[in-house]
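This entry is retained here.
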Amino acid sequence: MGSGRDIGVRAPQFRRVKKINIRFRIPYYTQWGQNLLISGSDALLGNWTVAQGQWMTPRHEGESLVWQALISVPDHFETQYNYCLVDDKFNVIKWEAGSRRFLALPQGIEDGATVDVHDSWQVGTSPEILMTRSAFKKVLFGKGNDHEGKEITVETSPFVSEINVQDSVAVRFKVNCSRLESGQTVCVLGSASSLGKWDNEAAVPLYRVGGSLWQAEVMIKRADFSLRYKYILRNRAGDVVPELGADRELSLDTSARMPSTLIVVSDGFFRARPWRGAGIAVPVFSLRTLDDVGSGEYLDLKLMIDLAVKSGMRLVQLLPINDTSVNGMWWDSYPYSSLSVFALHPLYLRLQALSKNLPQDIKEEIEEIRQQLDLKEVDYEATLAAKLAITKKVFLLERDEVFSSPAFQQYFEENQGWLKPYSAFCFLRDLFGTSDHSQWGRFAVFSNEKLERLTAPTSHHYSAIAFNYYLQYHLHTQMVEVAEYARMNRVVLKGDLPIGVDRNSVDTWVAPTLFRMNASTGAPPDYFDRNGQNWGFPTYNWEEMAKDNYGWWRARLTQMAKYFSAYRIDHILGFFRIWELPDHAVTGLMGRFRPSIPISAEELECEGIWDFNRLSEPYVRCHLLMEKFGNRWIEIANKYFDETQHLCYQFKEEFNTEKKIASSIQLREDSPQWLIQEAEETRKGLFDLLHEAVLIRDSENPRMFYPRFALEDTASFHELDDHSKEVLKSKYYDYFFQRQEKLWTDNALKTLPVLMNSSDMLACGEDLGMVPACVAPVLEELGLLGLRIQRMPSEPGQEFGIPAEYDYMTVCAASCHDCSTLRAWWEEDEGRRARYFKNVLSYSDTPPANCDTRVAHSILQQHLDSPSVWSIFPIQDFMALKEEYTKRPAKEETINDPTNPKHYWRFRLHVTMEEILQDLDLIAIIREMNVTSGRAILTELPELASSPGSDMPNGEIKVQKTSSTKSQGNGVIANSCRSPENLKSLINGEVKTDKLEIREGVV
């Protein structure tokens, strides 16, 4: 008998998994009730589920509060992670800014060893946070980031075999560095012998581990701690650029029960002088070239990019470029009312680029139309009609060839999710003669089944559908060509993300639940209009959008990123709260914020306020009618009002909204002027009376109220008793400036991070208007740039913004597309002009009546000298630098009039881009301003043949302003140098001034 063992089967061999202790530590000050935790991709860190993340414990170290967490992991552990601030119930207060961190343990660590991970909170306001965005890492610094060295892996690093040396500690130095010149590498040096003892030649080179992250592992003797060190940039010739600031320090925790085997030091960013750049803003339709037909076109932007490069600018900013063809008339010139947030606008198509084999008769037709439409301003309707007509002719000639091409098939495959609904919508719009899809019968309600039948290739109308595929494909191809041209020339192309969509759009047809169609968006009274603005867009149903993690927004940003490396978020305040108006409103005055916390009837009753009808209905009395209409008051009262009691009136049902009043006062176009004026006075007077309310009743809950904006301006308020006035003023202030702050903060932190994480584009927020206190901290936390327009200062009590006092994380400008140009603004108000001339420009003489070149130069230069990361100016303001371009009346250069909801967006340059590019004097003026302000470096600029600065030496000048200039910059030359001749003299060493300090000579 055997023993019972099956000696033919060998027992399995198991490798014992090593366990490594990781001790995370990060200094961070919290408030009572706040805690830090680590959330990451590994199960030990919660698989990105915050409530399952690793809780941290605070500990005082000297004057610092350091949070720590200790976990035990297998030796092959790697994870992505970030730090998160939460309350006691795991509600997220905020995440740190920047990209996700990555940790991978090297092989060869002994079982039971301890790894210390030293991190610091990633702050959104860090200038280097911007460098992680595609505008910088792929465009501006793309060349330097194409590092030629080999990336060393953990397995090939010599560090692995030395990691367990008893008298030493292994240190992994990690730092982000985006701004590298070709041939430069990142090194670390310091006080330890293994760090070269501050000898630049003995500095330890770091290796690139992906993106802009560099690291190196160094064995450092325990006796060499506490350690002092710095990072440097070194090129092949041995030239060194040290980082700014004090030495970094690293100490050993000698009190720790488990001494460190490996210390991972995440040092954030290489500390360089904050980068600053300049840009030029122009709507595509405003460009004029020798090839365009009726308006600027996408391919014209290549000439604008050339202008930017020659003049030392690194950004071209556009208005929205999406299709707005809703009404089939010039109203569609409004670029912020999208027909589709994905489709490009046919107005900007280059007809000559449709085919390499255009028939001669079509070429001749294009040239004939080009000459006919070469007008002072854009003829929107004629231009769009001509382009569509010719495109259809070419489509019929080459449809089969294009549709069978691999390029088109790839485009269709990648875009059909929005392209098919868009093309079907355009077909139905033309079929029914309206974009109001509620009028489309059985097609009023969208479904995928109906869409597939409409777009089936076998349908008799397929050619009409397919035409839009063809059109959008060519628009995409041309825009991609521009985007690539910008990237190759290291110019950032900046787009614009409108806050709304037209209520009769593809998006509201396909996904109606994402929108509140019974409401309208706008802005409360502001700098532009005392009655506020009503944009007419439906407001968003954020609760519905959140169900798929804001998929619609993520898709929009993904589409934009195909063309742009930066974008402007139009009316970013809308992501905190939107000014919502009832759909029967015409003006923007009688709105309320959504979301917001209303004032309850109970609140008011506790304060002795109870007559809610008196406060929330239009307060119309006999004496008010007489004040508004004079001798006509009885006629107006009889037609529009019912007398409810003696001398008290209420609007009749057929006139009790703004839209009803507006539609009742319609005149023929050939009406006499006196009648037109009388009708306008009647409309305005009735609107004013309709606005005579102190509270606005919630349409869904009659016991809830919102204070009417500027309620103290109403007669209704002035005729209340003193107690009621004080109560209502208190509730007004509380509603607009206090009670909503946390609600709006939470709302923005739900939505804005989704936008920013949907792409790596650089995001800039248009934060103008009535800005809540919560906006600035949120933008700071997220690393979002704000906007500073000098005539609309963000500081209370200021008449004009002071560019020298702007924050780095801002975009500054003297004007924008929503206001008058620099020249027009100067002419508008004599008193304001005098105050600005004296108090801002510091001139003692009488200001000129017109914005001459001296004034324009001073205003632009003070913005360029500001600390703002970007100074971006409309092209009209740059053209004010040369007298010959100022012959056109300044008012004709305005792009938009925000007070006019039906403004015709049609401004065109009065000279071609080809002429501007040949104007070497203007280009030299602009580039000199950019160089002297530190927003351009001479060695990066192309030579200008026959220009005043064409004989400048081809060497890099490293100059820095002293503190007296109130400005920072990369390679800055002080204000005393203002002409190309002076600049040349400075470079040749001929200018002597105590305002200049030459740094590090010439490389």
Summary: The chain has five domains: 14-125, 142-272, 319-495, 591-740, 786-1002.
